């Protein structure tokens, strides 16, 4: 659930896009999102891997290496892009909708 949902008390387009991005990451990585208020959540974990050039290490091991690395990188990056609140580059919603 998007952090803003707790502040405004309801879902909206922005929280839906955030949730979609988290769902993408959960499916690709085979892990639950975790607590959004702690640094052990999936988005923080992936940003850490990305910053070290190791984002593909996040891919669910059950895929048994049967992936296209470029496509999976795109999936993971898109999931991070719509959840990019950590770098101060959080894109505006129109930009996110265009990308999606």
Automatic annotation (TrEMBL):
Gene3D superfamilies: Transferase(Phosphotransferase) domain 1. It comes from the Eukaryota. It holds the Pfam family PK_Tyr_Ser-Thr. GO terms for molecular function: ATP binding; protein kinase activity. Residues 1-43 form the Serine-threonine/tyrosine-protein kinase catalytic domain. Keywords: ATP-binding, Kinase, Nucleotide-binding, Transferase. This is Serine-threonine/tyrosine-protein kinase catalytic domain-containing protein. It comes from Malus domestica.
């Amino acid at each position: 659930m998007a952090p803003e949902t707790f502040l405004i008390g309801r879902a909206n387009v922005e929280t839906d896009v955030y949730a979609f991005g988290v769902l993408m990451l959960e499916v690709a990585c085979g892990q639950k999102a975790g607590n959004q208020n702690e640094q052990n959540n999936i988005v923080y974990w992936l940003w850490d891997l990305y910053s070290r050039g190791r984002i593909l290490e996040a891919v669910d091991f059950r895929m048994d290496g049967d992936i296209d690395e470029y496509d999976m990188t795109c999936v993971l990056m898109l999931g991070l892009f719509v959840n990019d609140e950590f770098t101060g580059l959080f894109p505006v919603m129109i930009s996110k909708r265009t990308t999606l």
